[in-house]
Design a protein that fits this description.
51 residues, mainly alpha, 3 helices, 0% strand, rod-shaped
Length: 51
């Protein structure tokens, strides 16, 4: 394992949850900005009415 030494510095019980929280926040942020900046999103959410 290439990153085996990392767990001697950071415990897996701390590092793994931080990794997954950071992954989830990054994913939600990217999806939010794609949804806000897409021209078709407002009409898609409003079922094609206006926007």
């Amino acid at each position: 394992m290439n990153n085996g030494r990392m767990w001697t510095v950071v415990s897996p019980t701390v590092g793994v949850p931080i990794f997954f929280i950071a992954l989830a926040l990054t994913s939600l942020t990217v999806h939010y900005f794609v949804a806000v900046n897409s021209p078709f999103f407002k009409s898609f959410v409003n079922f094609g009415a206006g926007g």
